[in-house]
Every structure is written in C-alpha cells, then in structure tokens.
Hints:
CATH topology: Beta-lactamase
Largest sheet: 5 strands, antiparallel
Order of helices and strands: HEEHEEHEEHHHHHEEEEEH
Shape: globular
Helix content: 25-40%
Number of strands: 11
CATH superfamily: DD-peptidase/beta-lactamase superfamily
CATH architecture: 3-Layer(aba) Sandwich
Oligomer: single chain
Amino acid sequence: MTQEKKPLLAAVIIICLLISFIGCGESKTVDIKYRRAAVLHGENAGIALEKIPTSPEDELELYAAQAFLYDINEGKYIIKKGADKILYPASTTKLLSALLALELLSPDELVTPGKELSLKNEASAIAFIKEHHTLSVEMLVEAMLLPSGGDAAYAIAAAGGYAIGGDDISAEEAVSLFVGEMNKYAEKIGMCGSSFTTPDGFFDPQNYSTVEDMTLLGIAASKNETIMKYASLASDNVVYASGHSNTWRNTNRMLHEDDEYYSPYVTGLKTGTLEGNSCLMCTFKIEGREYIAGVFTEKEEELRYIDMSKIVDFCEKNLK
C-alpha cells in the first residue's frame, strides 16, 4: 500500500467506526443505554445489547424464544432473551394504535365506522362492530384491548386518518395515514427497531418489532390511564352511543378469577395471537413494586401463560 493511501484508509475506518456507534438517540421514556436502530438481515436485527451480569432466564426455562422482564421501579431489565432478533408483535400492536389514537382524537369523540371495516383480515379477532354502530373513541380503545377487535382497530385508525388528512379522503387512505403516524409515534417514544404496517398487528412480514422496543411500548401504555382502565378489566358490558349493546371478555386469561392462569398481581396488558406465534405482555404489581414483562414467539397459545406465570412467580418469590 502506498504512503498516500494510508491516511485515506485510516480516515475511512474512523468514519465507519463513528457511524457504527450512532443510533436513533436515547429514549426519553426509559433509561435504556443501548438504543440503536435495528437493521434487518433476514429475521435478525443488529442491535447493540446491554449485558446483564445475572439473569434468571435459564432458571425459569422459558418456552418463549424472546422475552423480557423489566423492573419499572429500578428502571432496569431483569430478563432479556432473544433481543438480537426481530419479533412479530401480533395484536400487541394495538397498544401503539391506542396510544396514537388517544393523542389524535378526543376520548369522547363519536365514530361511526364505514368501509374501513372491510379492510381487516377475515381471520382477525373482532369486537362485533358494524357500520351502523356509533361508538366513542374511548370505547373503541376498549374494544381493541378486551376482545382484541381488529374491527375496532380499523375503525379508530380511519378516524385518526381523517383527523390528519381531512374527511375527503378514502377509508384506505385514512388508514394508511394513521399507520404512517404509528411509525412516527413509535420513533418518538424511542422504538428504533420496529416497523408497523397495520393498525391491528395481523401478520405482515414488515410488521415487526424487537424486545427492547416492545418494552418501551409497554411502559408507555402502562402510563396511559385510559389504556390501563380497560386493559385491567376481565370483562365489560358496554352500550354504544348508538344504543347497541355488547359484552366484551378480555383475551388475557391471567385477569379471569375462574381461570387456572389467574394471577392477583396482574394489572393488564395485552395478548397477541398469530398462527404458531403467540405473545403476551403483562403489567403486574407485587408489594408496591411494578413490573412489566413480555413473552413472544410462543409456538402454542397456552405456553405464553405458562411462561408469564413463571415470571410472575419468580418476582413474587425473589424480587419483593
């Protein structure tokens, strides 16, 4: 190598090293030091990881390919598993949709759904909302959180999209605008390794997230009074503004006292179900200490409750 090329090569190496350390900025929501944008390589995301000196994940033998346990009081991870790969958040995506909708719209604003209801996948969960029904934004949030209604997600997405782009746009355009804002909102709260393409989280290869990002989303949702008001309910009898009535049952079995997976410590949060790929995020409180946990990429639905029960039991026995 000539003497002339050596300084140039050194400069290039220095620039590359600097770029490799540039992330998307520190999150203002949680003190997580390793924030960096994820870069996809197949199903892997290159994320700078924080090393945890001691972790109970081996002791717990979780079925989940990816999981986290975060101590809200201490502001630190206790468990972080599979953080080097992307995950498919399924209906936990609705937490982001709910947060954004409550920022764009008044909770008591009335919404009468239209053609956007036909945009949801036929296999998605529903809250039995029809085009002739009229519900408040707050009630649509409840419909997303309890029965995990994809119809509610599209109704609230269209309403949010119209608020952004005006009433003259189509339902498809309104939903698309809302989803675009979902990604901006995600970045705003520090979610740098995620991409969202639907308001309900139905499977799409480009609707993905990471363990760190889902931690941030869960914490943001746990701080929202409206979301937690409904995420904590086992069931609810509702009467729409149009006079129609319904009964919604929460898909989170850990909230139902008659269920084998019931836990008196669990205070919310959200399930997610895709074929062969289930997840669960829970907030729980033990003797004044608050935690949030998530288990993802579960091959069977029941495994998410087995894993979450192990995590809650671990906290009850060891982290009081």
